[in-house]
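Q: Given only this backbone (324 positions), what sequence would you predict?
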């Protein structure tokens, strides 16, 4: 076992898969000599060389387009996009090609591509650096969407994503890149895509989150001082998501709060609520409550704390559903 934060877990996961499979390569802006903007690829260039850790031009569309071609032809590229807001220019390649290649070729080709991108607010960065676009990419058939919330899951989910035959968007919550440390195995392991984690069990209320919001929700639960028995679900995977875990929990507790950093309208909470209404409506004691960011572009640094959901807003959401 080794004590690691999320950035270190990314490095460990990449190193594990690069050593395991010669077809795995890493490419992106400054991933080689500089070790990445957050140092997630630090040391890999020296260890695996310039043919496996490849510095690219500043062209996200080119990075993803080239990676799709590599993936279709037998390689397993892990493309780093420095910040998730820069992914939008690649959307045509991801929607029109990466997500469709299996169906288009009637199963003759797959696209084992991983696109890593730091996402979410909390670091006072510039415009287009702090986006939470998981619902956009989860709407693309053929794409998988993974968002870990801790170092253990980060390494295991990254290994699972690299081994997956289909394209995976791998969001990394940069607000907690170095805020959480865990003992994680140095040896090979993986966390299955599509399986939620029941962080803690409870009977009064289901609280669902992913990424950095899991830590925020844990802090909110601590502030409750055991006032309510809260079942906290870390979704871990947005597409495919663990509907069975969500529905089973809501049927047990009868109440649900969903917290995410993305804006409210068409955020992934809306999809979860639709599923709950279809499969667990008669178990509900109150309408499901969403704790989200407002429907405005991500603001500049001085307004960031007003924009992002925090512990107090999660607490208000839980009180609202419990007092209905």
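A: Predicted residues:
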């Amino acid at each position: 076992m080794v004590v690691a934060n999320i950035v270190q877990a990314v490095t460990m996961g990449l190193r594990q898969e690069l050593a395991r499979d010669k077809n795995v390569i890493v490419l992106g802006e400054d991933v080689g000599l500089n070790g990445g903007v957050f140092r997630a690829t630090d040391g890999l260039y020296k260890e695996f060389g310039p043919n496996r850790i490849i510095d690219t031009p500043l062209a996200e569309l080119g990075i993803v387009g080239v990676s799709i071609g590599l993936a279709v032809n037998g390689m397993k590229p892990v493309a780093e996009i420095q910040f998730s807001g820069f992914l939008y220019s690649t959307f045509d390649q991801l929607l029109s090609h990466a997500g469709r290649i299996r169906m288009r070729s009637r199963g003759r080709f797959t696209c084992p591509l991983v696109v890593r991108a730091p996402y979410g607010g909390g670091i006072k960065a510039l415009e287009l650096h702090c986006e939470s676009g998981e619902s956009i990419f989860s709407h693309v058939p053929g794409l998988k969407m993974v968002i870990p919330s801790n170092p253990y899951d980060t390494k295991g989910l990254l290994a699972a994503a690299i081994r997956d035959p289909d394209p995976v968007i791998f969001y990394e919550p940069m607000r907690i890149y170095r805020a959480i440390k865990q003992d994680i195995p140095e040896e090979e392991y993986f966390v299955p895509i599509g399986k939620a984690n029941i962080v803690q069990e409870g009977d009064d209320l289901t609280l669902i989150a992913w990424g950095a919001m899991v830590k925020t929700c844990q802090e909110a639960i601590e502030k409750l001082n055991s006032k309510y028995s809260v079942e906290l679900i870390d979704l871990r995977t947005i597409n495919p998501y663990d509907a069975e875990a969500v529905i089973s929990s809501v049927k047990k507790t009868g109440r649900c709060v969903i917290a995410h950093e993305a804006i409210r309208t068409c955020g992934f909470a809306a999809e979860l609520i639709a599923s709950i209404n279809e499969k667990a409506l008669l178990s509900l004691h109150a309408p499901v409550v969403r704790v989200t960011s407002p429907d405005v572009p991500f603001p500049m640094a001085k307004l960031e704390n007003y924009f992002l959901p925090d512990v107090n807003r999660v607490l208000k959401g839980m009180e609202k559903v419990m007092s209905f």
